[in-house]
Design goal:
Length: 341
């Protein structure tokens, strides 16, 4: 009975992908139990809503309600809001109260600073974690994609999230070289907003820009595809609502700059690794994960630019949190890959 109870407590251990766009929580023994936008709505210092409910309020809330995205470029921009959002999500995922607080594995960008590391650890502890382990996103993504990171030999991953893109080569449970750029999904949304503003004098919000990117966006021309979409926004000249028709070709051109910045990071990584590992990558290719992996035509573009085989991981949106979740069952590997305090 005592052993059963102990296992019950251990099952509360969590892995958290604290992303700029979405926060995912994996509970040991249960899998992914939460996948919600990293947005929190607050009123008088108290959490009114978080996740999907808060996203629905974005751009629509009265002045008394503050709706914020507390993470920018994969790291904490607003500590107080992040702590409250994380506390809200962890409380939501824990079905029952246990005497023992959970261990929490949190994924972070590889380019994170010491100050940002302390902020994430403190945030997790304030939210109720017994211990907080920080894991670099490329390692978690590689584990989630099923790559043998503990073996000798190169494994290369491109993880395109909301705020950062991580391009990394790993071998023997460590990162040999990593290029972290703060250009990802958010930057693509901003490019869509800028294009529509410049071309049509029309102002659209972040949510609508993301919808346009998902429906029309592509990284490479797709034969026979000619997509269009009605876009609604505010006319900047006369100041009234207006509807325009936007094509997939122009959105692809609008996304060109951030996408080529990601391609440039891939080239930089390939140029910096030892020749022995480069030979491994020629055989194994590159794995792409994260929400950005869902952008149509990205695989063909990367193949065209590098000449290497490209594989999109299975369910790329949850790849990082699933990889972090694997570590809850492998304490030895967790101790090897966790960032030092």
């Amino acid at each position: 009975m005592r052993l059963t109870s102990l296992m019950g407590f251990l099952a509360d251990d969590l892995a958290v992908d604290l992303g700029t766009a979405n926060t995912l929580v994996y509970v040991r023994g249960q899998g992914i139990v939460l996948n919600e936008p990293s947005i929190v709505a607050m009123k008088d210092g108290a959490v009114l809503a978080a996740g999907h409910e808060a996203k629905a309020m974005l751009g629509r809330a009265p002045g008394t309600i503050s709706v914020v995205r507390p993470l920018r470029h994969g790291v904490i921009a607003d500590f107080d809001s992040t702590e409250k959002m994380l506390h809200y999500f962890i409380a939501k995922t824990r079905q029952r109260r246990s005497i023992v607080h959970p261990r929490v594995v949190v994924t972070v960008p590889s380019g994170i600073t010491q100050v940002e590391k302390r902020a994430v650890r403190q945030s997790a502890r304030q939210a109720g974690a017994r211990e907080a382990f920080l894991i670099e996103e490329p390692i978690a993504a590689a584990l989630g994609a099923g790559l043998p990171v503990a073996e000798p030999g190169a494994n290369m991953i491109v993880d395109i999230g909301g705020g950062t893109t991580e391009v990394a080569v790993m071998s023997l449970s460590g990162i040999v070289y990593c290029k972290s750029v703060r250009i990802a999904g958010d930057e693509m949304n901003a490019s869509v907003i800028q294009h529509i503003r410049k071309s049509y004098s029309l102002l659209v919000g972040e949510r609508h820009a993301e919808e346009i990117k998902l429906k029309l966006g592509s990284a490479y021309p797709i034969p026979g595809e000619h997509l269009t979409m009605e876009v609604k926004g505010r006319d900047l000249i006369v100041g009234i609502p207006k509807t325009i028709l936007v094509t997939g070709e122009e959105i692809r051109e609008a996304l060109r700059e951030p996408i080529m910045a990601i391609v440039s990071a891939v080239h930089t990584c390939l140029e910096q690794i030892p020749p022995e590992l480069a030979a491994d990558i020629v055989d194994k290719g590159i794995v792409v994960s994260g929400g950005g992996a869902l952008l149509r035509g990205l695989g063909p573009l990367l193949h065209d630019q590098t000449g290497l085989p490209i594989r999109v991981s299975e369910d790329p949106l949850t790849c990082v949190v699933r990889g972090a979740g694997c570590l809850l069952d492998d304490v030895k590997l967790l101790s090897r890959v966790a960032l030092p305090s």
